[in-house]
Write a structure and sequence with these properties.
Layout lengths: L1 H12 L3 H18 L5 H18 L3 H23 L14 H25 L5 H19 L5 H18 L3 H33 L2
Helix pairs in contact: 2-3, 2-8, 3-4, 4-6, 5-6, 6-7, 7-8
């Protein structure tokens, strides 16, 4: 047990400024998302940019590519939240449709198999299939968040549990702690979004 705590201490001492920035802006971005604050998107751009460099150094190439993709999709999410509703108004919280859900699940399975095979056979990537699976599920969650689907928080909860284990294994202790915080924020986000959606439903019915 002492060796474990010493390893954590050594890891924290070795943390780069880039990882600290990524963690701080990451927490801020998810907290803002839970509160449906549109500033979540520009703040998140800073965080995911930092993690492109962090994951490259850790040889988690799928996660590196994921965060590079996040940079682009964050601008899409930003636009959707502001103008994705009816009549180009602010998008409201809704539930994911059954057809949309099954299409996303199929894409996750195909993406995991394809990317996992490529990374395992043609790169020096570590945890190829685990990395690919978490990347695919995270893309699903990110899409659902951009569309303000309530279930995005449940998907984040599932994938963040795995991320905590992966980043602890890779000795990215501060990042593992970040994803533990994400678990708490995802729970808050789900409850807040559900409450807001129920209020919107009541308001429409009583009009």
């Amino acid at each position: 047990m002492t060796g474990f705590y010493n390893s954590i201490l050594e890891g924290l001492q070795a943390m780069s400024l880039v990882e600290v920035i990524g963690v701080i802006t990451g927490i801020a971005g998810v907290w803002l998302a839970a509160k449906q604050n549109v500033w979540t998107w520009p703040i998140s751009v800073v965080s995911v940019t930092a993690y492109v460099f962090i994951f490259y150094d850790a040889r988690l190439y799928a996660d590196m590519g994921l965060n590079a993709f996040y940079i682009i999709t964050s601008f899409y999410g930003w636009y959707e939240w502001l103008y994705g509703g009816k009549g180009h108004t602010e998008r409201k919280v809704t539930k994911v449709g059954q057809k949309e859900l099954w299409v996303l699940i199929a894409l996750v399975v195909a993406f995991t198999g394809g990317l996992g095979y490529f990374l395992d056979n043609y790169t020096d990537a570590d945890l190829s299939y685990t990395d690919s699976a978490t990347t695919a599920v995270s893309l699903m969650a990110y899409w659902l968040m951009a569309k303000k689907r309530l279930e995005n928080w449940l998907v984040w909860l599932a994938v963040d549990v795995v991320y905590v284990g992966v980043y602890t294994y890779k000795e990215l202790y501060l990042t593992a702690f970040l994803y533990f915080i994400f678990l708490i924020l995802a729970t808050i986000g789900y409850l807040d979004w559900k409450r807001d959606m129920e209020k919107e439903t009541v308001a429409r019915v009583t009009k």
